[in-house]
Amino acid sequence: MPPSPETSTALLDTPLAEMEVFIPELVENYAEEKNKYEYRFLCPHAGQFMCKLTNLMFEMEGKGEVLYRIVSWDSCFLDGLDQMEPAGPLYSIDCHEGSICHLHLPRCETCSDVVEFTVAHVTGGNVEIIQPLKVTNTHVIIDIEGLSLFGLLRALLYKGYSIKAQVLLFYKKIIGTHRMSKLHIHLLPQNVPVEEVQKQHECNTYIETSSKCTLTTGKKYQPYCTNTDHNYVFQPKVEEFECDYGPNYHPTFEVLFNSDVDKVTLGLLDENDQVVWEPRMVLLTGSEATSPKTDTTGADFVDQHREKLIQRVSSVMEIADYLKSKNMISDEMYNDINVGSTPYKQMRLLYRSLESGGRVVKAEVYKILKEKEPFLVDELESG
Question: How far is CA 204 from CA 169, 201, 287, in A?
């Protein structure tokens, strides 16, 4: 049932201060070979909610489970749309209870009065163009009834326009060499989630740093390094900036170091030698390669020793408390576990919630077990 005008208006005008920010759960989706992982949000009640990882905003009429992921912009989606181009990722969104009434797609253009926005709604290979209800400084808002693929489009009225962008860094030692290493520099629109880029570069170390900058499409940029005590090479030296919405997220620049390097001072210049990303010190050591998939080591342990854990774990509510604090189980699941009359029954109910959460949640349970039940874990692991 579509929302009433009163409900829609109330949600659409919700002040940002009242908006709830959530960190989604990352769950496995075996139906998708190219992207096995998707984001999951268990909405507890009606209101406005923003995903901290993607900046997607959902206006909900009531509680429900929202599953969403980023997919590739297939060239056939853009056929016949010669005067438009993607202005953000393409999202696959599903809400089983159909309680989403408005969707806010994150945008990154600095001037909304210059760029004309629409939204592509793709269902069954057909593309419907949706006109926005409202364009804010950060989002394009649309009214939705059916769910499927949604992606922000931008009219090609101007060849060059400034956008809010980000500089992402990935570092890697070159195997087979004594001291060589390389640093990949990605220039990307700000509405590309960092986690999506990490998925494509899992074997490299993601270097977290202040990444925000403003770039102009079609303009040329060049990185520079102020370190004079190391041998390094930029390739290429200059590159034109274009909006990249995946799925591969190739690096814009590569820095090759011919000696041991633990830190560099890195910046970015435009074609007029003006600084667009202030030089900052970047530490290249002391961190490990990270992945948004989260370490799922231990998920097999939780599966393999299901019956023994159900029979012997006593700290069930401590596990449930932790999972609830991380939004990995719903309030309803938590309440069901809490009313269990014995730890045995509570653990059986907990396992039901683990099946819907997938390997990421099971891995978290393993970590808690190692902390709360270390002797039991050691005994089971030793056989």
Answer: 10, 6, 10
Strands 275-283 and 117-123: unpaired
Nearest CA among 67, 131, 55 for reference residue 97? 67
Distance CA 350, CA 358 (A): 12
User: Which of 28-42, 92-106, 263-277, 299-313 is predicted most confidently?
Assistant: 263-277
Establish whether the linkage from the previous residue to 5 is cis, with ω within 30° of 0: no
7: left (phi over 0), alpha (psi -120 to 50) or beta: alpha
Which of 60-64, 217-221, 335-339 is modeled with the greatest confidence?
A: 217-221
Predicted confidence (pLDDT) at residue 291 exceeds the cutoff of 70: no
What's residue 78's pLDDT? Answer: 75
Categorise residue 339: left if φ over 0, alpha if ψ from -120 to 50, beta otherwise: alpha
pLDDT of residue 8: 41
Please name the amino acid found at residue 249. Answer: Y
pTM value > 0.85: no
pLDDT tier for residue 357 given thresholds of 50, 70 and 90: low
